[in-house]
Predict the 3D structure of the following.
Amino acid sequence: MRVLLQPFVLIGRGVTSVSAGIGAWGLLTARTVGAMRHLDVWVRLLLPQMARVGVDSVPIALFIAMFTGIVLSLQASYTFTGAIPLYFVGVLVGKTIMLELGPVLTGLALSGRVGANIAAELGTMRVTEQIDALETLAYPPLAYLVVPRVIAGIIMFPLITALAIGMGIFAGWATAIQLLDMTSAEFISGLMLFFVPFDVTFALVKATSFGFIVTSLGCFFGFNTRGGAEGVGSSTTRAVVVSSMVILVLDAFWAITLL
């Protein structure tokens, strides 16, 4: 009987563990919102964090977007050969990058760069008792460590995503006119054929939510690091994995909700 019940025990433990983690993350988020009242602490740290989260992440975001645009343009021409007018390459490149690949690939890439960096940094501070020292000195650690990082993510992720979308479309256009025997007029005609301004709004809404998820989860796992160097590595890995999973879930949620 115990062998038969073992799978249900494991499932129950897993559900309990996940629920407890979500609750702890929600509590940290609520405390972070409360810590925003300490303007004198976090405002002066916001610009440096925006540079670390955003400016330093631009090269990898543009690199990914550039090759995404190239591949989309080539694959679209291959798919549409002899069946659909070639200017639909512009339709596919524009819609796919704006609605899906631009925000999602950027979010996934930055979950590895930004989320891992935050988790490792705060995790190291936790295991070396630097966060405990802040608490002992009655200095608000959330306002000092978490608030500027989360706000920087919320601000900078949409900006990086907008740059990535622009780069992806530009790369798709350059590929189309150089390799696919298309004119700029044909590509732009396809690009504008089904374009609506809401496409950009949809992408930026997703990017904003991704920025909050990546930075807040990175802070959560960093703050809850235990076990020295091994714990820092574990927290960093979990921050990237969980952030990536939540990004994909949010991607589906926004598609169901807004589209």
User: Anything to note?
Assistant: Residues 13 and 19 are 10 Å apart (CA to CA).
